[in-house]
Amino acid sequence: MKRICIFAGSNTGNNPKYKEIAAQLGEILANQDIELVYGGSSVGLMGIVADAVLRNHGKVIGVMPSGLLRGEIVHQSLTHFYQVKGMHERKAKMNELSDGFIALPGGYGTFEEIFEVVSWGHLGIHKKPIGLMNIDGFYEPLMTMVRNAAEEGFIPKTHAELFICESDPVQLLNRFREYEHPKDANKWRE
């Protein structure tokens, strides 16, 4: 693993553990010489994880669409910054640069980003690990929904395992190193 893309809230949320684990994850990435790829902001959980990587002498790559430059505060200390035209180009660039993906808690943007990469994994567009940082059960409702969709025949059961859901950042990264993409399954039953 050379680079991991982190999707995270542009706010910090109400639980202080979100900030604590975001900083811990950033420190661990830097200490393990794993570069951070993320949305390029200095605010919210996004900014906290980037600051932690930089504080521990790691490398941080930001990718932000020009349309968000006014609304989000661009981090001024990044190792490298890509300005792209739009959200689709942003996600394509993040995918191109990354060896895996982790979602910290977040809102609609974080959900959309993690669902796009899991859809790409499901379709075989990539075979990279996808993690959910399940701080205080934040992603339990999502995992319940995924298990239900598999039980109801909408997701192959092996593909319900595309998400690696852990509450401890060290354990999550250990599972990334052991990751094997599920065998291709017939996505269409008819």
TrEMBL record:
Query: Molecular function terms in GO for this entry?
Result: hydrolase activity, hydrolyzing N-glycosyl compounds
Q: Name the InterPro entries for this protein.
A: LOG (IPR005269), LOG_fam (IPR031100)
E.C. number, please?
3.2.2.n1
Q: What class of enzyme is it?
A: hydrolase
Q: Can you tell which superkingdom this protein's organism belongs to?
A: Bacteria
Q: Which GO terms describe its cellular component?
A: cytosol
Keywords tagged on the record: Cytokinin biosynthesis, Hydrolase
* Pfam families the UniProt entry points to: Lysine_decarbox
Q: Does the keyword Hydrolase apply?
A: yes
The keyword Cytoplasm is assigned to this record: no
Write down the SUPFAM superfamilies for this protein, in alphabetical order: MCP/YpsA-like
Q: Which GO terms describe its biological process?
A: cytokinin biosynthetic process
PANTHER family associated with the record: LOG FAMILY PROTEIN YJL055W
What the record says about family reads: Belongs to the LOG family.
Name of the protein: Cytokinin riboside 5'-monophosphate phosphoribohydrolase
Record the organism. Answer: Thermoflavimicrobium dichotomicum
